[in-house]
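Notes for week 9. Today we move from apo structures to complexes. The key idea is that a small molecule is not decoration. When we ask for a structure prediction with indole-3-glycerol phosphate present, the ligand SMILES becomes part of the input, just like the chain. The input block below holds both the sequence and the ligand string. Read it once before you look at the output, and try to guess where the molecule might sit.
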Amino acid sequence: MYLDRIVETKKSEVQRLKETLNISEAKQRIAAMPPTRGFEAALRSPKRSGMALIAEVKKASPSKGLIREDFNPVELAQAYEAAGADCLSVLTDSEYFQGRAEYLTRIREVVKLPLLRKDFVIDELQIYEARLIGADAVLLIAAILPTDRLRQLKALAESIGLDALIEVHNKEELERVLKVTDHGLIGVNNRNLHTFETSLTVTAELATYVPEQALLISESAIRTAEDIAYVGSNGAKGVLIGETFMRRPDIGEAVTEVMGAVSSRIDTEEVR
Ligand SMILES: O=P(O)(O)OC[C@@H](O)[C@@H](O)c1c[nH]c2ccccc12
């Protein structure tokens, strides 16, 4: 199963990381860094009322292969920002998604949006590394983390200023996550990471168990304005979209088509 393979890859990456990054040095460097940008806060007051957008910078995936040939991560991030994304998700896994840590670092220098490091986190060291490369939030995937690990990694992330987006795909995972937290960011992945099957009904089914004070993000396989309306009316407060945008030559146009336009401040003032 490919998720197991990914975890094996991550174990060896962590071993390698241990040779170059030590925790006390990481802590010192982090203490000298500027504060993070408030990933959750940005999603709680989205630019489009009613639906927050995390737009993803993703070149390839194990299920789809190469998604975008003409891939300039910095330009794509700028286009997302101009189109009114609230936050960005940047794939840093190289083996399976053709991402790079360096993409995130470079994007941070030119866009103001909060950034999620999208990777398969299994170890503390990857959390320190996420902060050091310039992330504002990390993804924690319940499918690969026992409940206690989830709790520890979330606490560590928060202790160094990172928000955590905790991802679930079924009720068993969600129940474990709710033992760790009843607030914060809960991502429902519409894609089954074992079979690659997707269905937006996963969001609708799990939303009924997500507490009001948590912020539910519907992830994966969202393509149209109708999809946004569907997950929105079923409890999603935000969406995480990659492929739909990455396949379109004009990213800004694609964002507007799916999400609608951001009404400018001047427009709103004129209405008042
Ligand atoms: O490209 P999509 O179908 O819009 O999906 C984006 C995002 O949800 C997906 O990339 C993702 C969700 N969870 C993950 C975990 C690891 C890697 C990738 C992912």
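The domain at 2-260 is CATH 3.20.20.70 (TIM Barrel).
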